[in-house]
From TrEMBL:
One Pfam assignment: ArsP_1
Organism in which the protein naturally occurs: Sutcliffiella tianshenii
InterPro entries tied to this protein: DUF318, UPF0718
Membrane topology: Multi-pass membrane protein
Keyword terms, alphabetized: Cell membrane, Membrane, Transmembrane, Transmembrane helix
Name of protein: Uncharacterized membrane protein YraQ (UPF0718 family)
Length: 335
């Protein structure tokens, strides 16, 4: 049974939808738009184009993620991974390419897998690889960049290699020692609520509930990211943009910081990145597309909630250094 809090959210959502439908059908926007400065109309145009292009892929991703969360157990995933520490890394990366789980949902999944016996470094490979390598992200990137081979091979080829490198480095640093934060209930030997699922639960109903919750959770980050990107494109001085975007060392760092702050869903970030394609270098666009799904502001909070502080700080440093170094090398060799 849904809680009163969820029911209140649903009512608010329906009222907002009704309000926007009223505005759409009955409000004359012509006179209103004439009073708005042209720059803000440009913000609106860029914002809507990003959101409208991204929404179908978010819907596809949340339903795929919800189906996996409801119907695929962690034990089934664990069965396919070899027990050897090094041999398990590549299958973990391949596993990430199969399951469309974005960074919004991957951290709790990885935590559950580690609790059930998955090695820490294998969990790290899955953590950084799955949000980029999954088929929904491949499709959205292909659509956003019109199948640009450099972007496609650069994003997914580098992501596959880098998730393995990051996993190996975390293995060297922590040697698979326990880095999870344990709740009071877990320490007392009770069942963790995140692993509980009533046997009589309607799985399809649970799938739709999970998908709707995840869609609205992702949606706010997409809207915030699209709005900031549209402001960035409209109001930032073009000379500053060109100076930042043309610098092969500075522009990847700027776009990595931008990806971290925006905290976009990996199923939608390609559309935001494509809006900067005429200003920033290809290397910096790749830095945005690779770094953001691996590490951003919203999943940093989740990491600190689920893992020990020392591990999270080391993970953040390793991901940042490895991605930045890889982009610089890629620019020198390929671009």
């Amino acid at each position: 049974m849904r809680t009163s809090n969820n029911l209140f959210k649903d009512i608010i959502g329906l009222l907002l939808i009704g309000f926007f439908l009223y505005l759409f059908f009955f409000m004359d926007m012509k006179d209103f738009s004439e009073k708005i400065p042209g720059s803000w109309l440009n913000v609106n145009t860029i914002f809507l184009s990003i959101v409208i292009e991204a929404v179908p892929f978010i819907l596809l991703g949340v339903f795929a993620s919800a189906l996996i969360q409801t119907f695929v157990s962690e034990e089934k995933i664990k069965k396919f991974l070899p027990k050897n520490a090094f041999a398990a890394i590549i299958p973990a990366a391949i596993l990430g390419a199969i399951f469309p789980i974005c960074e919004c949902a991957i951290i709790p999944v990885v935590r559950r897998l580690i609790k059930k016996g998955m090695p820490l470094h294998v969990g790290v490979v899955f953590l950084v690889g799955a949000p980029i390598l999954n088929p929904v992200v491949v499709a959205s990137t292909f659509y956003a960049f019109n199948g640009d081979p450099i972007i496609m091979y650069g994003r997914f080829g580098l992501a596959f290699v880098l998730c393995i490198v990051i996993g190996l480095l975390m293995l060297l640093l922590f040697d698979n020692k326990n880095q999870l934060r344990w709740t009071k209930n877990e320490l007392q030997g009770r069942v963790d609520t995140e692993d509980e699922q009533p046997a009589t639960a309607n799985k399809w109903k649970a799938t739709f509930y999970h998908a709707s919750d995840e869609f609205f959770d992702m949606g706010k980050y997409l809207i915030a990211g699209a709005f900031i990107a549209s402001l960035f494109q409209t109001f930032l001085d073009r000379d500053v943009l060109v100076a930042l975007g043309s610098n092969e060392v500075l522009s990847p760092a700027v776009m990595m910081a931008f990806a971290y702050v925006l905290s976009l869903c990996s199923e939608a970030d390609a559309f935001v990145a494509a809006s900067f394609g005429s200003t920033f270098t290809t290397g910096s666009i790749l830095a945005f597309l690779i770094y953001g799904p691996m590490l951003d502001l919203k999943n940093t909070f989740m990491l600190f909630a689920y893992f020990k502080t020392k591990f999270v700080l080391a993970f953040m440093a390793v991901v940042t250094i490895v991605v930045f170094a890889a982009i610089l090398i890629f620019q020198q060799i390929v671009l």
